[in-house]
Amino acid sequence: MAELTPEKDIILIESSEIGEGSSARNSGFLSPSAIEPRANAYGSAEDDANRKTRIVLAGLEWLRSVVEEHKIDCDWDEKAPRIVAAATRQGELRLLSSRQALEKKNLRYLEHDAQGLRSLLGTDYYQYGYETLTRAFVQPAALIRGLADTLPSNVTVLEHAAVEAVDGLGPFTVRTPRAEFVADKVFIVNNAHARALGLSIDRMVFIYTYGALTPELDNNELAKLGNLSEWGLLPPTPMGTTLRKWKRRFLIRSGHSYEREIDLEKVRATLTALYRRRFPGLHSYELEHVWGGGVAITSNGGNYFGELKPGLYVSVGCQGAGVLRGSIHGKLLAEMAYGSQSSLLADRLMLTGPSWIPPEPFRGIGATARMAWEHWQAGREY
Ligand SMILES: Cc1cc2nc3c(=O)[nH]c(=O)nc-3n(C[C@H](O)[C@H](O)[C@H](O)COP(=O)(O)OP(=O)(O)OC[C@H]3O[C@@H](n4cnc5c(N)ncnc54)[C@H](O)[C@@H]3O)c2cc1C
Fold first, then answer.
1. Inside any domain, residue 76
2. pTM to 2 decimals?
3. Residue 338 is assigned to a structural domain of this protein
């Protein structure tokens, strides 16, 4: 937006600090996958998948170009393998079907059997996997801080100022405890927190998930985590466990809770157990950092995108893999607000938004029941 309108003053209002939100506390996979493709008024499920894939791939290219242009030091890595691997027969079947989708889109991949995975990852926990050759990893906090540090000069960042309300019909009055701002255009991009603004953006729930990082490991321990210096592993199911060997450390992400964070000592115990059962021969399972973060989940995988009313724009609800999608959606939203027309924006406008979900207490009952079911189905993928 700042690039499209260099003459305008833009203020970015953050209730906490840049580098504290989920965008900074994720596992750093930039995954170019299409989420929950399905048929809609604009075409078949395959058309939907193709649109979603074009959007995330454009997100990858754009983010890469911004990182390169501004020399953002965020450990951008397109070489380390990104492996999707299954520990169960059911997971394997899911992977075989998602692999076919890659083939249809001409996205290249390499398959690995249990033995291959064992030498790459150092564990015999997984029985089948494939490695997508379009992939990237980042250190997410460094990425988000780097993006904020290199914003154009017409942008002012205001931290520790929670927006409490957006009033008016344009120009809008944006209220925070520190000051009020008047703007002819307002963009709401604050994850499922957007529900608190009373703007009918409420078809999503906050699901918290949890990550942990070991201390730096010695050469002996690192060798037990496979013969590659770095790799990332994603599960075939939403309730599965993500792993990453990264910069002499090991990262594990797993577990879910509805609308609030659970006690981090309980999380530490769970993540330690999941780590131990995948790598039973390690000397230590110490986790130096343990954290949680919220992701906005909708019932059909769709997210809010577009003009809510004249001058008021929204992009929220990025599900559990929102780094690329959130980034490119932000770019497309700014283009939309300033009248640009591109085939990518047309693609984005043809995606389905979030479907209706019932209010509390039915919402909570439904979400926790679905999580419990998916958790049970995940089995050893958890
Ligand atoms: C442990 C974990 C691992 C994950 N791993 C991955 C991964 O590997 N790859 C991937 O793509 N995704 C991953 N995700 C998901 C990803 O992090 C999210 O989809 C993404 O960060 C959402 O970005 P966002 O900008 O919408 O939300 P956020 O990053 O949450 O940003 C919203 C910001 O709005 C601010 N805010 C809230 N309310 C207000 C207000 N009223 N006024 C002003 N500011 C406000 C918040 O402080 C926050 O900084 C993971 C998430 C977690 C928690």
1. yes
2. 0.95
3. yes
